[in-house]
Amino acid sequence: MQVTRTIQRPVIRICLAAILAVSACTAAQSAGQSESSDWPCVQRKVMTLTSTQLWDGPPTEDLKAWEDDREIKNLADVLESRRVSLEDAEKAVKAFAEKQPADQRDEKLTLLFASLLTKINQDRKFVIKQIVKFQKHQEARSLEVQRQGRELEEKKQAIPAEQQMDSMRTLTPEQQKYQWDARVFQERQHNLTMACEIPVLIEQRAFEIGRLIRAQMTS
Q1: What is the mean pLDDT of residues 153-173?
Q2: Rounded distance, CA 6 to CA 26, Å?
Q3: Eight-class DSSP state of 65
């Protein structure tokens, strides 16, 4: 079934130009990232956050005692969730700190942050890998849409002038597919831009929770 609407060569050229512009922009962003050529985000690709990046407490990378502490692991799960407000997170951290013996309080809070940071890094790595995977799919889509656009341009140019008006009144199946694929590509590219913000939001969450934990420590 063909859709009856007017289509002119400039429409194809505009769509193709938009795809090329998005592709060029993404390529330029990727070229500026020394860590990975397939990273589409403006933000630098940092796979692992360190404790020194997020708080001024002791380094936690070598701490593993939290792995056997169910209470700490469960609380870290709660604190990690962005659905939990910072206000509720602060109350939970305070309640946990107040239960600890004075001589163990800082140690337990440090282990809490170590557990949180481990979970944060696991989540960020997963998100980053998904972004890279999505970007590779977008690159393939971009090439396909560009190919479709060039073929349509060639076919339009091959149509005799006296037949141009008749051909512009109805979208061919190829034109329908091209316009649909171009629209999907552009919408997904917009989603990719939003996805790039997720690792940043996760990092901000880690920093805020680290600040709350640090506030309950005595040294």
Answers
A1: 63
A2: 32
A3: G
